[in-house]
Automatic annotation (TrEMBL):
<feature type="domain" description="C2H2-type">
    <location>
        <begin position="352"/>
        <end position="379"/>
    </location>
</feature>
<feature type="domain" description="C2H2-type">
    <location>
        <begin position="407"/>
        <end position="430"/>
    </location>
</feature>
<feature type="domain" description="C2H2-type">
    <location>
        <begin position="323"/>
        <end position="351"/>
    </location>
</feature>
<keyword id="KW-0479">Metal-binding</keyword>
<feature type="domain" description="C2H2-type">
    <location>
        <begin position="295"/>
        <end position="322"/>
    </location>
</feature>
<dbReference type="GO" id="GO:0005634">
    <property type="term" value="C:nucleus"/>
</dbReference>
<dbReference type="InterPro" id="IPR013087">
    <property type="entry name" value="Znf_C2H2_type"/>
</dbReference>
<dbReference type="Pfam" id="PF00096">
    <property type="entry name" value="zf-C2H2"/>
</dbReference>
<keyword id="KW-0863">Zinc-finger</keyword>
<keyword id="KW-0677">Repeat</keyword>
<dbReference type="Pfam" id="PF13894">
    <property type="entry name" value="zf-C2H2_4"/>
</dbReference>
<dbReference type="InterPro" id="IPR036236">
    <property type="entry name" value="Znf_C2H2_sf"/>
</dbReference>
<feature type="domain" description="C2H2-type">
    <location>
        <begin position="380"/>
        <end position="407"/>
    </location>
</feature>
<keyword id="KW-0862">Zinc</keyword>
<dbReference type="GO" id="GO:0008270">
    <property type="term" value="F:zinc ion binding"/>
</dbReference>
<dbReference type="InterPro" id="IPR012934">
    <property type="entry name" value="Znf_AD"/>
</dbReference>
<protein>
    <recommendedName>
        <fullName>C2H2-type domain-containing protein</fullName>
    </recommendedName>
</protein>
Length: 555
């Protein structure tokens, strides 16, 4: 009897060194999908590479039991990898960078779905990055003190700050090895990294600085999703690691650098702050105060929770959109807005029904907005005049009354807080056309060019898109059953004129009748504003107060 049970070695399982019947073994050069490699490669990944001269004497198979353990381990390792990718991106939101989380949701959708399901992290189906960001402030991490939490981690890298200095000062310190510098427009920026940075890290920083050309970098084209933000042109700052896909945000950031030219000190690394301080201690106190918990728009003063929200918000001010609807000329600032638009405007499938009135909507979000209209309580109060409203939408619309933004008429001194009011005024008062109306679906446009473009959609509809109402169906069956446009004389029901087809159609749902009604303009050549003005005049006359007949005096 031997001391060690190795009599059959190397005719054993490489993973457990047990003697197993050949029928119960798998050669190590076999590719296994769950391992995403051959068995030999996987074993090398989790251990080390065997020298070539030893391989002829190493067991060349594994038993089925060990293989199952390896496949389970491989699956668990991938799960942990995906989990830590998610953890890292989740924490970066706290530090003001939402982009990693958005990219993770975009590129690892299936992996995240499996992860959330396995760990029971998500309570609804189809939740996305916007849902997570909307409730991020409710998580415990949102209330943590960023400065205090990172103080210990920052200790070894005491002076890891951007330092603005003059050319003379930079030359005096040029011999120090642990500096990241980049020259631009006579300004030198250095990252004093202290003693904790090793040479390889400095090289990475230098490479990053050299690659930051400040010019737009375009990713390769993809047929899968050309509107994806991941494939948009990206801007890299020449003077710091900041990068973004948003033009306005990049412009504001670079102007912050320009304002610091010729000055020196320790700078806050928040891309929309870049405030200079005389000492590192002052900078630490600045960060400890957590002034960047919210992002403030420099144009209108609005405060937003996340950096990406601010960057999108800034684009709205100048009308820049990146996501084009595939069914019409509308374009949007975010992919979510585009998808909501397609679901609400173009797709005819009914997915969510109001339990109170039976109205149906193409998304739960639209249903939620509709349900608010049933509330009798006015819970949304204007901070300016204290008037209250039933829905957030009504409050937002009202709040424009208090806005400093006014739409000035080019033909007289009248101005309005709403653009549609100005357009109606121009047509009624100055007889100038501002509404270009489609005579098929009655949608209006700002100019004739946009109208003609729209009419081409009626003439050449896409697959499963109705040429009349332009609603899109998901199947042939739903296309045959969809509610198309019908024409009638007016929008009167229950003794009330609802004046607009959307209001009228929603009202009819209260009667359990689903319609897609339209009333064509009565006279060609009459402007929309003029026609509405004439209707208003007629209604005023019909509603004129008439004294009731007086009874005869009895004598």
């Amino acid at each position: 009897m031997t001391v060690f049970n190795l009599l059959t070695f190397p005719n054993v399982c490489r993973a457990c060194l047990q003697s197993v019947h050949p029928d119960q073994t798998i050669p190590v050069d076999t590719y296994r999908p769950l391992l995403e490699a051959t068995v030999a490669t996987f074993l090398q990944d989790i251990s080390f590479e065997m020298p070539a001269d030893l391989l002829p004497f190493i067991p060349d198979a594994v038993c089925i039991a060990c293989l199952e353990v390896m496949e389970f381990f491989s699956k668990y390792r991938r799960k942990i990898k995906h989990l830590h990718e998610f953890l890292s991106a989740l924490v970066r939101v706290k530090l003001g960078d939402e982009q990693p989380l958005r990219e993770l949701f975009e590129s690892r959708t299936e992996h995240l779905d499996v992860l959330f399901r396995d760990l029971d992290l998500c309570n609804i189906t189809g939740a996305g990055v916007e849902d997570l960001l909307d409730e991020y402030d409710q998580y415990a991490i949102a209330s943590m003190d960023t400065a205090a939490a990172t103080q210990e981690a920052e200790e070894p890298m005491e002076e890891q700050y951007l330092i603005y200095c003059s050319e003379e000062e930079s030359e005096a310190t040029q011999s120090e090895p642990d500096e990241w510098s980049h020259r631009s427009k006579g300004l030198k920026i250095e990252l004093d990294t202290g003693t904790a940075q090793n040479d390889s890290e400095v090289q990475k920083l230098t490479a990053l600085a050299d690659s930051g050309t400040g010019k737009q970098q375009k990713a390769p084209d993809s047929q899968a999703d050309k509107s994806s933000s991941l494939l948009r042109k990206q801007f890299h700052c020449e003077q710091c690691p900041y990068k973004t896909i948003f033009t306005v945000a990049y412009t504001i950031h670079t102007k912050k650098h320009e304002q610091n030219e010729g000055r020196h000190g320790f700078v806050c690394n928040n891309p929309y702050c870049l405030q200079l301080f005389d000492t590192a201690q002052e900078l630490k106190l600045h960060k400890k105060a957590n002034p960047h918990k919210q992002y403030e728009c420099e144009i209108c003063g609005a405060e937003l929770k996340h950096r990406i929200s601010l960057e999108v918000h800034l684009e709205r001010h100048v009308g820049i959109t990146h996501f084009q609807c595939t069914y019409c000329t509308s374009s949007f600032h975010t992919k979510t807005e585009m998808q909501n638009h397609i679901a609400a405007i173009h797709i005819s499938e009914d997915r969510a029904e109001c339990e109170q009135c039976g109205a149906v909507f193409t998304s739960n979000k639209l249903l939620k907005q509709h349900i608010e209209s049933h509330n009798t309580a006015r819970n949304y109060q204007c901070v300016e005049c204290k008037r209250s409203f039933k829905t957030q939408h009504q409050l937002n619309r009202h709040f424009k009354v208090h806005s400093d933004v006014r739409y000035q008429c080019e033909h007289c001194e009248v101005s309005y807080t709403r653009r549609d009011k100005l357009r109606m005024h121009v047509e009624k008062a100055h007889k100038i056309q501002t509404y270009f109306v489609c005579d098929i679906c009655l949608r209006s446009f700002d100019n004739d060019e946009a109208l003609q473009q729209h009419l081409q959609r009626h003439k050449f509809p896409n697959n499963l898109e109705c040429g009349t109402c332009l609603l899109v169906s998901l199947t042939e069956e739903s296309f045959a059953k969809h509610t198309c446009i019908t024409y009638q004389e007016n929008y009167i029901c229950c003794g009330h004129d609802f004046k607009h087809h959307t209001v009228y159609n929603k009202h009819m749902m209260r009667h359990g009748i689903k319609v897609n009604a339209r009333v064509k303009p009565n006279a060609r050549g009459v402007l929309v504003g003029q026609e509405r003005a004439s209707k208003t005049t007629e209604e005023a006359r019909s509603c004129a107060f008439v004294l009731p007949d007086q009874p005869e005096n009895e004598t």
